[in-house]
Amino acid sequence: MRFVSRRILFYAFTAWAAITINFFLPRMMKGDPVSAYLAKNQGKVSPEAADALRTLFGLDTDKSLLQQYLDYWGLLISGNLGRSFSHGLAPVTDVIASALPWTVGLVGIATIISFVLGTAAGAIIGWRRGRGSDALIPIASFFSTVPYFWMGLIAIAVFSTALGWFPSSHAYSKGADPGWTLEFIGDVIYHGTLPALTIVVASLGGWMLGMRNMMITVLDEDYITVAQAKGLSPQRVVTTYASRNAMLPQLSSFALSLGFIVGGTLVMELVFSYPGVGKLLLDATTAKDYPLMQGLFLVITLAVLVANILADIAYAILDPRARQLEA
């Protein structure tokens, strides 16, 4: 509990710093979202409406910067991230909530699959080092070095255009009625299979190489020799002793990957015309929709922090030495 409490306090301070930077950064930029909105709608917005917009977005010049900062915290606590200019002044929380499930569902599942497969394959290859299975490492690493947009285009050309196995774009068929029905869920899975497989293939090599190298290092430790001398089965030595310690560095990388899932894979969403947070962030940047950008940056930052907290807890559970060093 002492270890967990210290880590939570550290990440709470980090979250406060990130939120504070998220508040001041847009105000340090030239202009403001209201001025950008008024420039696009010259003559359509009255001065009274412009003042109301500035008050709505916490840019009221009658208030001090400290008061605006306190009001910003009040809005955050109440779950109000402002309104998006590029989506008809819709609440930012609603705009993000409409795109977030697509990103988490696709990139999240693909990341977990690639981590599990890559870690398991790397452990087996490291245990059986010097055999034919080592040939999988350069093959997987080759696909990891291919630019993602190029791999996505090749996947579309082969599996969509040539073979016709999967659709080339969008999250579901045109004219489909979104809902929690088996027909619609199957359509979503069908459309998401090709981009998910592309993500898995592109990231599999890194997980395999990292786990394989750590397994080789761990297998030279004395406690592995002692476990083998006791007559333990090879399966138990691999799973209970070697893999458990070798995968500790993998957890940190996996936590960062989970955190950045919320940010989405922008290139993937552009290549496959897939709706998600990454494409939403690009559209918000292009439209200078500062409230939406601010909300997206905040969500991504908090997701990374939460993922790191969970990784630290898992690390402490798997490795008691981490708890002892913290104490």
From TrEMBL:
Q: Where are the transmembrane segments?
A: 7-25, 102-127, 148-168, 188-209, 254-275, 295-318
Domain ABC transmembrane type-1: from-to ranges? 100-311
Pfam families in alphabetical order: BPD_transp_1
Keywords in UniProt for this one? Membrane, Transmembrane, Transmembrane helix, Transport
Note the CDD domains from the entry: TM_PBP2 (cd06261)
Q: How does it sit in the membrane?
A: Multi-pass membrane protein
Q: Where in the cell is it found?
A: Cell membrane; Membrane
Claim: Transmembrane is one of the keywords in the record: yes
InterPro entries on file = MetI-like, MetI-like_sf
**So which domain of life are we looking at?**
Bacteria
Which family is this sequence assigned to? Belongs to the binding-protein-dependent transport system permease family.
Would you tell me the protein name for this molecule?
A: ABC transporter permease
